[in-house]
């Protein structure tokens, strides 16, 4: 039976935002059971709960907002909470965007593990898929299938001479998240950079925090961390976006050509299809756990 979890001690980190180019500082604090993940914009004195209802933008990142105040690019941090099973945490931030760090979630994993993970005296409910549920959004498709566990399969396609189709299927637990998903970096095409910056995005992007692709291949001197790093990062994003449901989803999620917008739209459709899933008030303990006390 899985208990709720929070972090054991306060930790912090700072860095530049991928899209805003702003320097921000983030402080992670333990939170009581049943709190969920809550962002607090200390410069605006505004609390924003990490929930589907507070998603205000999904263009090239997931943005949460409340009463005109926003926090952009929350998906990598939420992915770590989802991947490590952190249910309750207060995220204090003094600016409009979560720092991108190296473009992956590895540094964020290290920060959370430095804080430690502690169990709380309350069960964590979860969502179990009861029947196949299919969602189409233009060229994107996401399917949820009944499954005894948490599995994510993802497929993407590129019209590129070096990168075509990439796919992956992973059983999600803390160990596989840390080893196979967290190190995968955000990526983009050089030809799109000018368009993004003209629209007020990617102001903080560089080869230090993103994999950049031109017509000939990868511009980063250190190359790729995995041959299929791009699709692994899509799984990383999906885990973060799906955490906005408020509960882990037990089932097999199959996604193709999807992204932040389709992730969020899928969740909203799924949760409204009440015959496709059920609420469960307990779940098996995960085999691998990190720094639990």
Topology:
Layout: E1 3-7, E2 11-16, E3 23-30, E4 37-41, E5 46-49, E6 55-57, E7 63-66, E8 69-71, H1 75-84, E9 89-93, H2 106-115, E10 117-123, E11 126-129, E12 133-137, E13 140-145, E14 150-157, E15 165-171, H3 174-181, E16 187-189, H4 190-198, E17 211-213, H5 229-242, E18 249-256, H6 260-272, E19 277-280
Parallel strand pairs: 4-9, 11-18, 14-18, 16-17
Antiparallel strand pairs: 1-10, 2-3, 3-9, 4-5, 6-7, 7-8, 11-19, 12-13, 13-18, 14-15
Helix pairs in contact: 1-5, 5-6
Characterization of the model:
With 293 residues, the protein is of the alpha+beta class. It has two domains: 3-123, lpxc deacetylase, domain 1 (Ribosomal Protein S5, domain 2, 2-Layer Sandwich), CATH 3.30.230.20; 126-280, lpxc deacetylase, domain 2 (lpxc deacetylase, domain 1). The protein is 22% helix and 33% strand. The chain contains six helices and 19 strands. It has helices at residues 75-84, 106-115, 174-181, 190-198, 229-242, 260-272; strands at 3-7, 11-16, 23-30, 37-41, 46-49, 55-57, 63-66, 69-71, 89-93, 117-123, 126-129, 133-137, 140-145, 150-157, 165-171, 187-189, 211-213, 249-256, 277-280. Strands 11, 12, 13, 14, 15, 18 and 19 form a seven-stranded mixed sheet that branches. A hairpin with a 7-residue loop joins strand 14 (150-157) and strand 15 (165-171). Helix 5 (229-242) crosses helix 6 (260-272). The relative contact order is 0.22.
